[in-house]
Amino acid sequence: MHGFRARLDYILKHNYVINRVFNWTASSFMKVWGRFVPMDEKMVIFSGHTRKYNDSPRTLYEYMLTHPEKFGQYKCVWALEDPEHVDVPGNPIKVKSDTLKYFKYTLMAKYWVTCVNIERSLHYKKKNCRYLNTWHGTAFKHIGNDAGVRKDYDFSSMDYFCYASEYEKKVYMNAFRTREDAMIPTGLPRNDELYSVTPDEIKNIKERLGLPLDKKIILYAPTWRESTDNGKTCAIKPPIDTEKWEAELKDDYIVLFRMHAYTNKLLGLKFNDILRDYSVYPNVNDLFKVADILISDYSASMSDYAILERPVLCFTYDYEQYRDERGLYLDYSTDMPSGILRTEDDVLNYIKAMDYEKECEKTRVMIKEKLIHLGGHATATCLVKLFER
Description:
This protein is α/β, with parallel strands linked by helices and 389 residues long.
């Protein structure tokens, strides 16, 4: 079923005619159905990234749970890919995403909270429904209407849309047609915890993950690559010789690998004591906290990690191809701290030669101050906005 859904999502994204017919038909049906479904003034529906219990909606929900004096009267619904096998605290209603029951709850709920979208690109939101979209990360690669696949992204029905910098605000308003009066300068709720990390917390996470305290940690977190088989798989093949990395880094480093949630096929990598796979570990912020260096490419993880003001390396082995096919908002040769690192030798040599403190400063100036300078109190701010009278 998951493979069928991925295939359907791919077709709807890449075939304009099918997308238009489906959206018009489904939106019309939802509008008619909505006339017969009364709104529950105290119901909130949450939807995370890739239909999981995660990201900023999880942060907002758990904040509500810990503040019952403010939010105890609300009835919460979580939309999930596999609700029967996901533990969610607080005993909310759990519903399988994209089923008829799911869409019925979207019609019932007065409040929608997501980091992607609730309505699945359909147009049926009720007038009195209040819609908060936190989004899920800074855009380095083209998104929405800028990405060239579709030009019909329209988030103008959203009441609140989070951004962390003027750079993000400009991108989102153009790529998604968000209204300027809906934009709220908060940063991401899920990143609030990255503004107050302590040495004891880092030590505790390392011990919990079984990481050595006497070695530095590198997190390698590349983004996904477009499917080459019409949506059947979304594969990635980093040009990495595991034995070379082990030989070069084993005395001083451990490398943690984290695959993007969209990637479902990893090619060519072999894991060992030096290169370890943390793709299914549930909390990426824990990995950010313990990492001394981040290696990525076009992923929003670079801006999240930059909050910690630690070195960010851009291992962009397919830079020209990716820039020309997907599109990038920045020129990596001048706008990113490490510039363009095209080969694994470039990456390994950069690590061995780096002045760590200077790299931290470059991250602060080039990424944090320009792309993600707003944040730290997003959770409380978002909830005040959402529920204000």
